C-alpha cells in the first residue's frame, strides 16, 4: 500500500494503527524486568525504544516508500537520510523513556508528517499505558480527535480552550524544569501547575485540560512534532520565545525553547 503524502486524511487511519502496533510492542517490554542503557548523549534507551522504532519504520516504508524518515534511534546511530524539498516523517518511538523506566505511564509514541513547508501536517500521539491506550490525532486544517482505547475507531473531536478568567493551568516537565521556567511562571496568572511527562503535555492542552506549557531548554524535533500537529489542529499553537511558529528540518534536528498554548483571547 502506497499513499500520497498530500492526502493526510487517507494516511491518518494507517498511522493510528501503526502507532498502536508500536504501543503494543512497548507494553510487552513494559511487563518485563527490562534493562536500560545509555546512548552516546547519555540519554537512556531500552529494548522498547528500539523494537517500537523497528515496527514504525517498517510500516512507514510500506505506506510511503518515497518519503524519508527521521527517527530518534536511527539518528543516534548517525543514520540520517538526506532531506529534499518534499515532506518527511519525524518519529519518536518512545517519548519519555525516563517515564517508561520509572513506570509512571507518562510515555508516548510520536509519529508526525512534516510538509514541504516544514510545518506539521499530520501527527499521532499514543499513550499506550493510559487506560488501554489513548491516542490523539491531528491534521492541519482538519481538526484533532481523541481515541479512547483500541476499540474506538471514530474518536471524538477535541478543542483547545482560552485561558479561564481565574488563571491558567500550566504544565511543567517532570525532568526538565529549570530556573527560567520558574521565573516565567512568576510573571503569569497561574491557577494550577501540573507536572507531566512526554508529549502528553501538548495533548492535554489540545483537549482543553490545560492552557500553557513553557520550555526554555532546547529539545529534539521528534519530541515535539506530533504533539504540535495535534495541538495546532485543535486550535492552539507552539511558538518560539521570539514569537515564531516552531518549524522542522533544522540543522541537527534541534528545536529552541518554545511556548505551547491553547486559544488566544
From TrEMBL:
Enzyme class: hydrolase
Binding of Mg(2+) 2, residues: 92, 95, 223
EC number: 3.1.3.7
Reaction(s) catalysed by this chain's protein: adenosine 3',5'-bisphosphate + H2O = AMP + phosphate
Cofactor(s) recorded in Swiss-Prot or TrEMBL: Mg(2+)
Primary localization: membrane
Record GO terms (molecular function): 3'(2'),5'-bisphosphate nucleotidase activity
PANTHER family tied to this protein: 3'(2'),5'-BISPHOSPHATE NUCLEOTIDASE 1
Residues annotated as binding substrate: 72, 94-97, 223
UniProt entry keywords in alphabetical sequence: Cell inner membrane, Cell membrane, Hydrolase, Magnesium, Membrane, Metal-binding
Transcription among keywords: no
Protein name per UniProt: 3'(2'),5'-bisphosphate nucleotidase CysQ
Amino acid at each position: 500500500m502506497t499513499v500520497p503524502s498530500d492526502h493526510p486524511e487517507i494516511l491518518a487511519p494507517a498511522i493510528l494503527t501503526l502507532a498502536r502496533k508500536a504501543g503494543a510492542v512497548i507494553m510487552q517490554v513494559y511487563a518485563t524486568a527490562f534493562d536500560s542503557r545509555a546512548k552516546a548523549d547519555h540519554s537512556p534507551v531500552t529494548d522498547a525504544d528500539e523494537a517500537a522504532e523497528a515496527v514504525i519504520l517498517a510500516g512507514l516504508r510500506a505506506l510511503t516508500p518515497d518519503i524519508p524518515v527521521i527517527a530518534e534511534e536511527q539518528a543516534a546511530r548517525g543514520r540520517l537520510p538526506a532531506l529534499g524539498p518534499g515532506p518527511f516523517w519525524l518519529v519518536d518511538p518512545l517519548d519519555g523513556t525516563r517515564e517508561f523506566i520509572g513506570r509512571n505511564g507518562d510515555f508516548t509514541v510520536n509519529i508526525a508528517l512534516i510538509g514541504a513547508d516544514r510545518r506539521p501536517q499530520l501527527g499521532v500521539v499514543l499513550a499506550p499505558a493510559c487506560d488501554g491506550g489513548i491516542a490523539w490525532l491531528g491534521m492541519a486544517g482538519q481538526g484533532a480527535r481523541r481515541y479512547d482505547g483500541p476499540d474506538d475507531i471514530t474518536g471524538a473531536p477535541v478543542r483547545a480552550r482560552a485561558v479561564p478568567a481565574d488563571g491558567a493551568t500550566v504544565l511543567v516537565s517532570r525532568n526538565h524544569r529549570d530556573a527560567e521556567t520558574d521565573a516565567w511562571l512568576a510573571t503569569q496568572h497561574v491557577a494550577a501547575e501540573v507536572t507531566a511527562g512526554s508529549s502528553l503535555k501538548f495533548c492535554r492542552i489540545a483537549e482543553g485540560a490545560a492552557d500553557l506549557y513553557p520550555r526554555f531548554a532546547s529539545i529534539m524535533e521528534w519530541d515535539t512534532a506530533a504533539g504540535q500537529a495535534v495541538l495546532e489542529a485543535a486550535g492552539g499553537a507552539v511558538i518560539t520565545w521570539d514569537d515564531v511558529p516552531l518549524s522542522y528540518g533544522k540543522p541537527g534536528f534541534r528545536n529552541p525553547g518554545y511556548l505551547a498554548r491553547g486559544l488566544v483571547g
